[in-house]
Amino acid sequence: MAERISGYAAKFRSETTIAGEFREMLSPGCFARTLRDNPDVVMLLDHDSGRVLGRTTASTLFLREDSTGLWFDLDPDPTTPSGMEAIGTVRRGDIRGCSFGFRVRSEEWQDGGNRLPLRIIKDVDLAEVTLTGFPAYSDTSATFRVATGNGAAERVKTKVEAAMKARGITP
Asked: Do the Cβ atoms of 18 and 12 come closer than 8 Å?
């Protein structure tokens, strides 16, 4: 049985306030280009580059954009300290959310009137997704599950889908 962590690292059309200065919202499609053009994205624990939990090119992390947002499926390594920590904290519910590291390529600003201005992110360069106890977007999710069976079919499917995505083919 394989231990998996999955959920939404980001959700579309959901507002959050950034540093008390402006509101931010992700537009559907903002991850499409980077997922197509950048086949190497990592998942970290709390944005710490020393705590890598998975990687798309290693087929230990699968990412896809759907109508809800940026969905992920992680195969954490239970033999590493970071993998054990991720499994334990997500399984217990101590970590339930996600964040992501990115550079904005395209955005739109709207005057907030009596509210803070709104930044709508249209396109990003995605560097990483992260499990965190303090997500900027509160509606992100991370859940623990145990895959039944030996997991071989699921691993093969994930690897094939990652290879297809790297060639620009949508699985």
From this structure: no
Q: Is 171 within a domain?
A: no
Query: How confident is the model at residue 156, as a pLDDT?
Result: 63
Does residue 90 fall inside a structural domain? yes
Question: Residue 170 falls within a domain, yes or no?
Answer: no
* Residue-wise pLDDT tens digits, 39-90: 899 999 999 999 999 999 999 999 999 999 999 999 999 999 999 999 999 9
Q: What is the CATH number of the domain that holds 137?
A: 3.20.16.10
Q: Output the six-digit token pair for 45.
A: 């624990």
CB-count burial class (<10 Å; 0-12, 13-18, 19+) for 147? middle
- The b/e string for 53-81 (b: 16+ C-beta within 10 A; e otherwise) is bbbbeebbbbbebeeebbbbbbbbbeeee
CA-to-CA distance for 145 and 5, rounded, in angstroms?
A: 6
Q: pLDDT (tens digit, 9 = 90+) per residue, 142-169? A: 999 887 655 556 656 666 666 666 667 7
List the one residue out of 120, 143, 128 whose CA is nearest residue 12: 120
